[in-house]
TrEMBL record:
It comes from Microbacterium panaciterrae. Residues 159-389 form the ABC transporter domain. Keywords: Antibiotic resistance, ATP-binding, Nucleotide-binding, Transport. InterPro entries: AAA+_ATPase (IPR003593), ABC_transporter-like_ATP-bd (IPR003439), ABC_transporter_ATP-binding (IPR050763), P-loop_NTPase (IPR027417). Residues 34-78 are annotated as: Disordered. PROSITE patterns: ABC_TRANSPORTER_2 (PS50893). It is found in: Cell membrane. This is ABC transporter domain-containing protein. SUPFAM superfamilies: P-loop containing nucleoside triphosphate hydrolases (SSF52540). Transmembrane segments: none annotated. Residues 34-43, 54-78 have a biased composition (Low complexity). Pfam families: ABC_tran.
């Protein structure tokens, strides 16, 4: 009995020793694997940092000198990250910061808000060290992409949207929207306030990620090849957030360089665009001093500087004076006549009716009418048809107190 107990104790001790040895082996293996992974990550980070530094140095070398301004604030950085993916914003903010920007009088550039221009693949720089997790709704744009169109892309279409859905909490902003925009056309999206136009255009532009559905730009799937899709696009977003502490010239210059254009080409295009948009005299002023219409025009110029195939313009004529609107229309018409495609949203029914070849009326996140202007109007004016589909607006009754003039 005693011998049996001793033998059991010996077996238990042996098992314990074996378990300890196995645990030690596992720990050693895990440590080695972790060290290997850490070393690989460090190599990758070093490689990325090297690449980023080279690209940013190229941008800085050819960019115009900056005007004196303030240091970028946390708010500035956050705003920039709202518009472009944080991993793209970080190095750009860094490179525009006082410690690194070679400027006249050693003056730093401040960027008050984020850029709205999508970044061309060749200009994208990844954050060399710490990468902030992207906003869940903001589509990442730092992936390596192929530039080839999808083989099953419908021919002759600049834009094909299918089953697009976007929810904000419990509310559905975009509800299974389908759009087909022929290449070389002027396409208008109209709808009442809150209909989902901006949300739809933001998804098309790759600035917002849909909950469902697909977007193909010139045959390129926006979700699969976001950078290639962005390269084809020029975008004027609804909110005019930009690097408004830069002068107009600097802003356009950066837009051009970020799109991968050579400095000499950018310089020429900046001059051409400024002339066309009547901004030559304002090029040396900081954009924060521009009027709303001037800001819209400089950003429109920025959206065009890389001669994209498709322009996505959210309310391009809002705040713009009639003379400038006429010029912009002429520019856009010539662009379309030469094969470009314009997709715009507008509340100007007359303008849309006059300019667009196809129209979609969106109400409550759904397309209620789509087709050629005549098809959508269905024998009425566009405004009548719009009112018919939108339903009645707010109630005017109950505001009698407004007429009592309480002073
Ligand atoms: N970031 C957001 N968070 C929550 N709700 C949002 C957000 N963006 C848009 N929405 C909501 O989605 C709906 C569609 O908004 P959207 O801006 O797309 O409308 P719109 O047709 O462009 O309107 P408008 O003509 O007034 O510019 C609205 O109800 C709006 O409140």
């Amino acid at each position: 009995m005693k011998a049996e107990v001793q033998s059991n104790t010996a077996r238990a001790a042996a098992a314990k020793r074996a378990a300890a040895r196995a645990a030690a082996v596992r720990a050693a293996t895990a440590k080695a694997t972790a060290e290997k992974a850490a070393s690989a990550r460090a190599d990758a980070v070093a490689e990325e940092a090297k690449e980023s530094a080279a690209k940013v140095a190229a941008v800085k070398a050819s960019a115009p000198r900056a005007t004196p301004a303030r240091r970028p604030s946390a708010r500035t950085a956050r705003a920039a990250e709202e518009i472009i993916a944080p991993e793209e914003a970080a190095p750009i903010i860094d490179q525009l910061s006082p410690s690194t920007t070679p400027a006249v009088d050693d003056a730093p550039v401040d960027i008050e808000r984020g850029t709205t221009a999508p970044i061309a693949p060749e200009a994208v720089v990844s954050a060399p060290t710490e990468v902030v997790a992207p906003e869940p709704d903001v589509a990442p744009v730092s992936e390596v992409v192929e530039t080839a169109a999808e083989p099953d892309a419908p021919a002759g279409h600049a834009l094909v949207v299918r089953g697009l859905v976007k929810r904000f909490g419990d509310s559905v902003a975009v509800d299974r929207i389908d759009l087909t925009v022929p290449a070389g056309s002027f396409y208008g999206i109209v709808g009442p306030n809150g209909a989902g136009k901006t949300t739809t255009l933001s998804i098309i532009a790759g600035l917002l990620r849909p909950d469902a559905g697909t977007v193909r730009v010139s045959g390129i799937d926006q979700a699969v090849h976001p950078l290639a899709a962005k390269k084809v696009l020029g975008v004027l977003p609804d909110r005019l957030r930009t690097f408004d502490r830069l002068t107009g010239r600097q802003l356009l210059h950066y837009y051009g360089l970020l799109r991968g254009l050579p400095s000499a080409v950018v310089e020429k295009r900046v001059a051409d665009l400024a002339r066309a948009f009547d901004l030559t005299g304002a090029l040396s002023r900081v954009v924060s001093d521009y009027s709303a219409g001037m800001t819209k025009k400089i950003m429109l110029a920025g959206a065009m500087i890389h001669s994209p195939r498709v322009l996505v313009l959210d309310e391009p004529f809002e705040s713009v004076d009639p003379v400038s609107s006429g010029v912009i229309l002429d520019i856009l018409r010539a662009y379309v006549a030469h094969g470009g495609t314009v997709v715009l949203s507008s509340h100007g029914m007359d303008l849309v009716e006059r300019v667009c070849s196809r129209i979609a009326i969106i109400v409550g996140g759904e397309v209620l009418a789509e087709g050629t202007v005549d098809e959508v109007r269905a024998g009425q004016t566009l405004e009548q048809r719009f009112v018919e589909l939108s339903g009645s607006a707010g109630e005017v009754e109950g505001l009698e107190w407004l007429h009592t003039f309480s002073d």
